[in-house]
Amino acid sequence: MVKEDKVSGLKIRPYQAKDRKAAVSMLEGLKDFITSVDIWDIETRKSDYGEASIKKILKTASKGKLKIFLAETKRDGAVGLVVAETYEKTEVDRLAVKSKVEYGEITHLYIVEKYRRSGIGRKLMEIAEAYLKKMGCTHIRAGVFFPNVKAQKFYENLGYRFYNVEYIRKT
Ligand SMILES: CC(C)(COP(=O)(O)OP(=O)(O)OC[C@H]1O[C@@H](n2cnc3c(N)ncnc32)[C@H](O)[C@@H]1OP(=O)(O)O)[C@@H](O)C(=O)NCCC(=O)NCCS
């Protein structure tokens, strides 16, 4: 774990084309982490997962509906990533959700292990939230895998509260 003072010179900035390899690696790191805490033997991370994910994310970004921000240190380069996406209401949503409400979503958030608990996740979230607010989002959603208790504590610390709960059972 790297303490805050060791992360001096930390920069949060938008994703650039040259970051693709680092982004793929962090998306894979995130999926590996989710797989490591999976208690149901469902999650996996196949070899093309990172490339397929960044492709999908960049496609949405090209439509102006999403932004990726990276945290970068002088010493280790990119050490964190957040993906913030605006949500366009469907016809049915328009009939079911108050018109004053517009959603944004944090779809991916990852800090490399050695830099966790140094305040980088909080900083990435501040930038992502500011972007979503600027895009007109009144509420921000973030899904967390149930066994990922640490991430739940993180989001709760930032003022997020439970909204939907999803159940699962084996047939
Ligand atoms: C969850 C995650 C993004 C948090 O990022 P981080 O940079 O480590 O978090 P921060 O240092 O900004 O923490 C901010 C606050 O959140 C809370 N928090 C963060 N990690 C915590 C943990 N492991 N246990 C308890 N509280 C925690 C604390 O209140 C912390 O403030 P403090 O350190 O002053 O007490 C990071 O641990 C991570 O990438 N985990 C693996 C992937 C993941 O879970 N992604 C998110 C869900 S998809």
How would you briefly describe this protein structure?
The chain is an alpha+beta fold and 171 residues long.
What does this structure look like?
The longest helix is centred in the first third of the chain and has 18 residues, at 20-37. A 5-stranded mixed beta sheet has the order 1-2-3-4-5, with helices on both faces. By secondary structure, it is α+β, with helices and mostly antiparallel strands. It is globular. Helix 1 (20-37) packs across helix 2. It has helices at 20-37, 49-62, 91-96, 120-134, 149-157; strands spanning 11-14, 66-73, 77-86, 103-111, 139-142. The structure holds coenzyme A. The site of coenzyme A has 19 residues, from helix 1, strand 4, helix 4 and helix 5.
Question: Which helices and strands appear, and what pairs or packs with what?
Answer:
Layout: E1 11-14, H1 20-37, H2 49-62, E2 66-73, E3 77-86, H3 91-96, E4 103-111, H4 120-134, E5 139-142, H5 149-157
Helix pairs in contact: 1-2
The chain binds coenzyme A (COA).
> What characteristic shape results from the CA principal axes?
globular
Mean pLDDT figure: 96
What is the number of helical segments per DSSP (H or I, 4+ residues)? Answer: 5
| N-C termini distance | 41 Å
Q: How would you name the oligomeric state of the polypeptide chains in this document?
A: single chain
Q: Helicity, in percent? A: 25-40%
Bound compounds, each kind once, are:
coenzyme A
| pLDDT < 50 runs, ≥5 residues | none
Extended strand count: 5
Q: Structural class, please?
A: alpha+beta
Strand-residue proportion: 15-25%
What are the secondary-structure elements, in order, as H or E? EHHEEHEHEH
For the CA atoms, what is the radius of gyration?
17 Å
Strand order, largest beta sheet: 1-2-3-4-5
Largest sheet: 5 strands, mixed
